[in-house]
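$ run holo --ligand "uridine-5'-diphosphate" --emit tokens
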Amino acid sequence: MSRTLLDYEPVVGPDAISQLRQAARDLKGATVVHVNSTREGGGVAEILAWLNPLMVDLGLDARWEVVEGHPEFFGVTKAFHNGLQGGEVMLTDRQVEVYEQTVKDNAERLRPLLESADFVVIHDPQPAHLLAACPNRKGKWIWRCHIDASHPNRKVWNYIRSQVQGYDASIFSMPQFAQRLHHPQFIIAPSIDPLSEKNVDLTDDEIKATLEKYGIDSNRPVLTQISRFDRFKDPIGVIRAFMLLNGTVDAQLVLAGGGATDDPEGAVVLEEVKAAANGNPDVNILLLPPDAHRIINAIQRASAIIMQKSLQEGFGLTVTEAMWKGKPVIGGNVGGIRLQVHNHYTGFLVDTPEGAALRIRELMNRPEKMAFMGRTARKFVTENFLLNRHLREYLTLMLGLRRGLANHLMAD
Ligand code: UDP
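-- output --
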């Protein structure tokens, strides 16, 4: 069910809504096409699920398209993803050929829409080659990189750069992620939808029933990490941290995640995680379906602490979701997590499983600190990471591009 802007007024206030309506006035009727590679699973799909309907509500002709492909294609794009995050990956001619051919096949279907659109926003590397496959574009094309690409694998980046160089602009989540590209780069942090199934208030009864259904004891504190089973999310580091507590803290660990259709590595990593848990009855590993939004919401709300011990993180919507629910976050000291977790205020930043164990123990022994961090976290998200700010920045960027601000900036 899609919501309208009016639904958000009680959460963000009337001024925020009227600001958006004003910004959208000169964009009415403009065609905006977002393209990514999955409708479900992962942060990008999470954002597009609200961004697109709200752009429509503002009078834009907004669409959301998804590139489709065979497993081999998603194997290549996952290698791009890992490579942009600095992972050691191979990039062969055959992989490039599979990638480009699949995107070209998608272009057969999408070309009329993309070439005539006023704005095309291409999310992440998977659909990036669409620009080359749509030579007669009319509008402005924006590459939106959600990944921490600050220290990419050179070979992968050189290839991706050749694909995105021709865009009119790119967007990164943090200044540190910006790259050497011959077009203007903008910094826009992601955000959450406070009224989505993932974030809306739940009753205590629903939370309790969810815990029961998934075998989580509602009488003992819960530590949770919600993530796709991906090595960069370091689920094994979280298990190590939990094991290091060695019974000194009465708590259970929940690692909950599902797959994304564009992430072929999940099943392998899940097996590694199960092996690391080694049958520990206090470690609850849940493989969830992609639409388990209310379940995740309930588990986050039932948790004492949320972990997000990533080794690389573009932003980490799971962190925002947890903070919105008034939870302290113990997060990896990387990427977008650093934008959200302010050490000692909204949570703790950690570099190692040992550090994570130390902070878990500290927080579990200091409920007043936990409550303070939770309150601070909620306020910080309210002020910085709700969808109205994000939407406003998109509108401003589109207005700027349309009025030639980009050329002006480049001439400077
Ligand atoms: N998520 C989900 N189901 C899962 C795992 C994650 O719905 O099994 C959601 C999670 O709640 C968050 C998003 O997917 O909204 C993950 O975004 P994040 O930025 O944390 O990481 P990404 O997966 O994009 O790297």
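-- notes --
Residues 42-43, 46, 198, 226-228, 257-258, 288, 292-293, 296, 315-318, 321 surround uridine-5'-diphosphate (CB under 6 Å).
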